[in-house]
Amino acid sequence: MNTNSNSYTIIYASVMVVIVAFLLAFVSSSLKDTQNKNVELDKMKQILSALNVSTQGQNAEALYKQYVKQDLIINANGETVKEEGGFKVDVVKEMAKPLAERELPVYVCEVDGATKYVLPLRGTGLWGPIWGYVGLDDDKDTVCGTYFSHQGETPGLGAEIATEHFQKPFVGKHIMRDGKLVSIAVVKPGKTAEGQDYVDGISGGTITSTAVDHMLKNCLEQYDKFLINK
What we know:
The chain is an alpha+beta fold. It has 6 helices and 10 strands, in the order H-H-E-E-H-E-E-E-E-H-E-E-E-E-H-H. The chain has helices at about 5-50, 60-65, 90-95, 165, 205-220, 225-230, and strands at about 70-75, 80, 105-110, 115-125, 130-135, 145-150, 175, 180, 185, 195-200. Helix 1 (about 5-50) packs across helix 2 (about 60-65).
């Protein structure tokens, strides 16, 4: 075959594309289990962070099993649908459903002999998805810890939601007022929120701060009846 011909170039390129595609598919398939395991471990770390449990240098899976006693699935009426399986629930898909049809995960935990509850959060920031977890004391009202992260918020601005500086002020705040769910407001520094506990937002990251405010409110509202039922 004439190696300088157009047909040779086309055939050669086609063969190389097929070979590379096969190799990529093979590598992806081979690493799938490892990738899935890493995703699960990262999720465990996020849940533990909402309990203020450090996983630095620790076995996250062992710590998760130690502190998380159940991963319930409840419905919008606050009723337990399944005693386990909440860890596998795709929160993004569930939030796309009508509220009455959603499966809502609840992580029932125990820290230093006290019951804690961890609820997942999902929302939309300035440049993409934001997410997190909020940990509550056994009164289902007092925040014991939070975890927030993002896909692409602006470094030094909106991305600060992933820092301890932003997350720590939530601890000790209350999501209920006079027996009703009111969430926690995220306000501009120096401002207040009437009828709610509040924390300062990020200077220069107003849109992301507002997104966290909306995420908290929208996600906690799903659990309204569960939270009110003591």
